[in-house]
What does this fold into?
Amino acid sequence: MTDDRKTEQENRIKRDIREYGGPVLRSGIWNRAMRQTHHNRWTVGSHSMSVCVAALRMSYWLEDKHICYVNHREIVQAALCHDLGIVGRYEKFANNRVCCHQHPLDSAEIARQIYPEISEKTLYTIRCHMWPLCVALPKTREAVIITLADKYVATGEGIPADWLERYQKALNATVLRTTVPARN
It folds into this structure.
């Protein structure tokens, strides 16, 4: 992707988030989400924003390749709201298993409060984002994209930054040992 294309995509992402995400980004629950730790060193809010960006990139790619059209309003609303039910988790849920199953339902109810006109399809996308850890199977394009983006982002958040750096150094050392001829 060229630099111009990257800039164009970043501007498109910002525009979509501004257009469709304003109500949630201005909400009190979002402020709390930006302060609550999630996946060890991230916050619920930063995780949700990362899921939103990843999901929009996936949807743009699908459109650019003429595979399918995706509703960006639903992507933004579902991505930004999908984990808001986790806010206050230690007071609300007895354990991680209960949180895993209950927070998508709570997130959908919070989304309904933030967006009174939210579509049932978007609420469904929020409720099934924990698949396969919950029984709700993602059946729409938007639900599949949000579920995949959530797993993709969560996987990267679970890897300690220093581990990535150590791994890259070790990999470079191995590659150099096997590809650079020994000096005589």
User: Anything to note?
Assistant: The beta strands are 37-38, 42-43. The chain has nine helices and two strands. The domain at 3-159 is CATH 1.10.3210 (Hypothetical protein af1432). The longest strand covers residues 37-38.
